[in-house]
Amino acid sequence: MHNDDAEKLYLRKRKNLNADIEEWRKYWKKAGPIRYAEEYLFCPPKVPPHPDWKKLQTEAYCIGCKKIHKKFDKKGVPIHIILPQEHKDFFMDIWKGGIRLVLISAGRGAGKTFDLGIWENWRLVTEDYYEISYMGGSAGQGKVVQKYHDYWRRRHPEVGYIINVSTKSISNRSC
Ligand SMILES: [Zn+2]
Q: pTM for the whole thing?
């Protein structure tokens, strides 16, 4: 989808929102980032099928979507995010453990940037006056995270309603 079209689509969704947004925010703030990721956020595009999806396929009522749906699509791609246990532990640490300064060290492809995107998105939609800044060397990572936010705010009317401007453009200038 062309960027402008995506922008129009999201503006249309914004108009059609009739959920009680404050109730919605309170609900997901209490539910926390893990449930927010696993029961609300859609899995971003280009995620490969889950290796055991046929065994794990279930159908249940989903609170985030307010309807019954399967855990995986026809190709085995999860509908919502599935977090490995270590990632859940990490979220518990920063959510409930009172940790305020985080230094994440993990191998390439471990999902550091993705976890950051989930955490930021959850904070952005549930906290008042929450802003995110990326500086210096992390600009590349910032762009990746911005893509996640843009995807979620277009796919989810509530997220689109709350995060009405994606992060200000990230410049390419180097210091
Ligand atoms: Zn759902």
A: 0.81
The residue type found at 113 is T
Nearest C-alpha neighbor of 112 from the set 128, 125, 94: 94
**Span from the CA of 145 to the centroid of ligand 1 (angstroms):** 22
Report d(CA 14, CA 125) in Å as an integer. 14
d(CA 71, CA 49): 12
Average pLDDT over residues 141-152: 89
Task: Specify the long-range contacts of residues 39-42, CB closer than 8 Å, at least 24 apart.
Answer: 39/63, 39/64, 39/80, 40/64, 40/80, 40/156, 41/80, 41/81, 41/118, 41/121, 41/152, 41/156, 42/79, 42/80, 42/81, 42/151, 42/152, 42/155, 42/156
131 alpha carbon – ligand 1 mean position (Å):
27
Structure tokens at 39: 């029961």
Where residue 7 falls among pLDDT bands split at 50, 70, 90? low
Distance 63 CA to ligand 1 centre (A): 7
